[in-house]
Amino acid sequence: MFGFLKILWLSFWAVVATSILFFPITIAALFSRTGNLAFNLSKIWAWFMLKMTMVKTYIVGREKIQMDQSYIIISNHQSLFDIPALVTQLGIQFRWIIKKELLKIPLFGYALYASKNIFIDRSNRERTIQSIHNGLKRLPAGVGIMFFAEGTRSADGTLQTFKKGGFITALETGFPILPVAVSDGNKILPKKSLVFNPGSIRVAVADPIDTRDYSHAKIEELIQKTRDTIQTCL
Fold this sequence. Notes:
234 residues; alpha/beta; Glycerol-3-phosphate (1)-acyltransferase; 8 helices; 7 strands
């Protein structure tokens, strides 16, 4: 019964926050040239949901981030609560990799597009890469791209195999990689569960990795270095 009440609590406040902020964020996305205002408004949603679920977040290593630099942000993924933790703690503008099916949602889909998020066609590898290339052309200066390198949430918090997409993007753009480790999200909201648990989420930022030192022939080395760095932070 207590778990069911937690689900109701989480759902209620998610609906309240979304209802209040949906139109301001959408309007900001439609009329902002960069999409930065819409991203900043989304921080309010994230902050509100963290407060209502009594989840505290904190960050170590923020001083390693250069505020006007575009990064390929590579993070592990443990929980849906990783998203508000990253949005509120990193302190920089970034955009998400989003499946193209969300474009079909009236108004909301276009708002995501206007905010300069990157939509991908996951039907095959070539289309995925082309989708990322198209999105990069629209990316504002100084804005990064967030990749959950594992591709899905880890059920027990153990770091899984990293996919190549974010690393290929880093090599082709020349953007440095910003390794980020999110800890204890799986304790807050485990995968395949809606029963949240109050607690703390730690966001750890490691030293950026200069991708100019790597080529496509050395991409596995780059992936391993990034994964080892995040594992150490965890």
